[in-house]
Structure prediction request, 252 residues.
Amino acid sequence: MTQGSVGRWITAVALVLLAGIYVRALAFTPTELLQGPAQKIFYLHVPSAWSAMLSMGLVGVASILFLFLKDERYDRFASASAEVGTVFSLVMLTTGPLWAKPIWGTWWTWDARLTLTLMLFFLFIGYQLLRSAVSEPGLRARYAAVVGICGLVLLPFIHLSVYLFRTLHPRPIVLKPSAPSLPPVMLVTLLLSFGVFTLLYVGFVTQRYAIGSEPR
Amino acid sequence: MNGPPQNAAFMVAAYIATAVILVAYAVILIRRTRGL
Prediction:
């Protein structure tokens, strides 16, 4: 079984499970009283943000490993993870405003959390533009690694931005020192969605890595 | 007492948009890896 077909299978299973998340979130998870149905966007928005940050975190780690070990596989992995991260960022930046409009009354506001996540998206785009602009492979990998490490440095600021600045964005309800502040039925839906989005990340990256490993 | 706000259209739009983006990317990757 090739790496590409392993990735295809993982992706297919993850998409079926994502359909299951849709059913669970829409039909079997109660509607929140104050926010109404729009609150259910949270079951897609938060896991997609998680996957985008996981993508950039692993781009950064792979970039550091590449600079130290000079192993071209780390560069290839970073490149694959950055492309996948762009897709998850797109989901995050699409679902976020669709939640914000009915709840905040505006599609977008330039507060710290939103601006930093937009920067994350631009870093993903910039990372790929840089890769396509430099033709010499060794140079391309080194320059890209520097951008990847910048992305890794950005992540703690994104997570902590809701504590460091006055923002409209809600604070973390699961990834925080105290216990999750969600009823169990909603928490289970969210955690299952985290799992499915992580599996989707694995499926996407496995396929993208297989494409990148082809001789050019 | 009022019930929950009526904003299901936003929820539906978000669920459709997410499915479209993720399935489209999955299809692109599957087509590209098939040729390997």
